[in-house]
Amino acid sequence: MSAPSTPKGKLYLVPVPLDHGCEHQTQADDVLPLGTLKRAASLTHWITENAKSTRAFLKRVHALTPLTQPLQNMQITELPREVHKKGDHAGASSTPFDARPLLAAALQGTDVGLVSEAGMPAIADPGSSVARAAHELGIEVIPLVGPVSILLALAASGLNGQNFAFVGYLPQDPTARTHRIRDLEGIARKYGQTQLFIETPYRNQALLQALIGALREDTRLAVASGLTLESARISMRPISQWKRSGATASEADTYLKLPCVFAIGP
Predict the structure, then answer these.
(1) How far is CA 120 from CA 32, 116, 133, in A?
(2) Do the domain assignments include residue 1?
(3) Which one of 137, 177, 210, 249 has the fewest CB atoms closer than 10 angstroms to its CB?
(4) Residue 78 is part of which domain span?
(5) Assigned domain for 251 exists
C-alpha cells in the first residue's frame, strides 16, 4: 500500500502598498486588511519582482503582525530579468516563460507568496506566468485583498467602468506614441471602451503633453497620481479643458513625479 501523497501548498497573490519609490509611505494597515497582513506574515517562501522591495515590505508587515520566521530565514526568489523586459507571456514568435520550477516548494506542501513592487502581482506587473504555472500543476491560487492602482483609477475617473482595457506602456518614440494614442482614442470612441495605460514617473509630463496634443478636444482624459497617498490627485476633464489649464511647473514637480495611471474615453 503506497504512502499518502503530501498535500500541495497554495500560491497566494499578495498585494503591497502603492508607494514603492515614493518619498512618503502610507500606513500599510490603511491599505491592506488585517487578513492580508496576517497571511503575508505566515509565509516563508516568496516569488518576487524585486527581493529588496519584498524585504522592505515584510519589515512593514512585521511592525504590525510578527513574521512566523526571521526575515533572514525567508526564501525569496526573483523572477528572471527577461520576464520584466519581455513580459510573462511571449508572442507567437517566442517561447513563453516556464515558471513551474519556481513552485517546487508548493509541490512539497509549502505555501508560497507571489509579490510585486507595488499593488497586485500579475496586474500591470510580472507574475501571471507563476499563476498560470500553478494552475498547470494543480496548485490552488488565492488572490488576497489589497490595492490595484488601475481599478482605483478607473473607479474614480468617471469613465466607463463596464467596458475597459489596460494597454500597458505607450511607445517612447514621439511619432509612434502619437499614432498609438490616436488608435486608442478611436477604439474608445467607437466602442465606448475606456483605455488605461501607465508610464515611468519621469516620463509622465511628456506623456501628458503628448495626450493633450494628439487627442480630440472632446475626448476625456483622466490622470490619477499617487493613489492611496495623502498627496493623491485624480483629475478628469475634456482635452479642451486640459489645454486651458495645462499642468504648471509646480504641478509637474509634485503629482506628475509620482506613479500615475492615465485613462481616456468619450
Answers:
(1) 11, 7, 18
(2) no
(3) 249
(4) 11-143
(5) yes
